[in-house]
């Protein structure tokens, strides 16, 4: 009986050893996923085609390079983006209204991918991590206009790799660098800044509370000529109310000279001003110099402070 038990145990051990040895090639096959140069290059080319599609504003190409069930976050996302339609809208694309529209190639803009890395987690799943840069040609050479930190999830469907998910944010270190450099103010941006400044002054003299609440934030600090005190938001609004209730009207408003400095989202205006008011049938004219500070918050320009003399 003992001999029989020993024989059975020995046969069980040998069978287990055989099964273990026969499974070793499967382990090697899994580790072989690391050696996939062709797949890596295919994913890299696909990502490059997405960058070029955005440069050319080829909306059909952008749509075709992402899965229908796409998931992820983009810069400024407040919630996970679900599906290709939400992805297109998150990128400012009026899809499907612009389907079939003509691309607009931009030869002055190029892209780069740096620190590119891909890991495979099966035959049909891969994750790519890298820095993506958009560059613009200038007289001084290529200028980086945006740098992203990107993690893309790729799936192989129908034999081809396609982007199924992504987490894309502006590189924080690059953003910090840009905030410390003076930004060139384009003619369009200058017009927008001046219009915002003009609107704040007119809203104040008109006691337009809705416009003031939108343009003058809670953290405003103001110094007005003739007053030794710092004004907060409450005092600014009270001054506008008293002027309007006293029958005051703005007759003319001019800014003879304005210089602008912009650092990231911070905008500083150095200006001369002149305005004519009417109150009680009498007109008075005031002029002086001022420094005004605006900040871009979202899509709005808000007037966070000023000093007038």
Q: How do you describe this structure in short?
A:
The chain has 309 residues and is α+β, with helices and mostly antiparallel strands. The chain has helices at 2-31, 37-56, 59-64, 84-90, 172-179, 187-206, 209-215, 233-245, and strands at 66-73, 81-82, 109-120, 125-136, 143-157, 160-170, 221-223, 249-263, 266-279, 282-297, 300-308. Strand 4 (125-136) and strand 5 (143-157) form a beta hairpin.
What would your notes on this structure say?
With 309 residues, the protein is an alpha+beta fold. It folds into two domains: 33-179, Nuclear Transport Factor 2, Chain: A, CATH 3.10.450; 187-308, Nuclear Transport Factor 2, Chain: A, CATH 3.10.450. Helices cover 36% and strands 38% of the residues. A hairpin with a 2-residue loop joins β9 and β10 (282-297). Mean pLDDT is 87; it is low at 1-32.
Shape estimate: elongated
Alpha-beta classification? alpha+beta
CATH architecture of the largest domain: Roll
Count of discrete structural domains: 2
Radius of gyration from the CA trace? 31 Å
Largest pleated sheet? 6 strands, mixed
How many β-strand stretches? 11
In the sheet with the most strands, the strands line up as: 2-1-6-5-4-3
Mean pLDDT over the full residue set: 87
At the first level of CATH, the class of the largest domain is Alpha Beta
Secondary-structure element string: HHHEEHEEEEHHHEHEEEE
Distance between the termini: 111 Å
- Number of helices, counting only DSSP H or I runs of 4 residues or more: 8
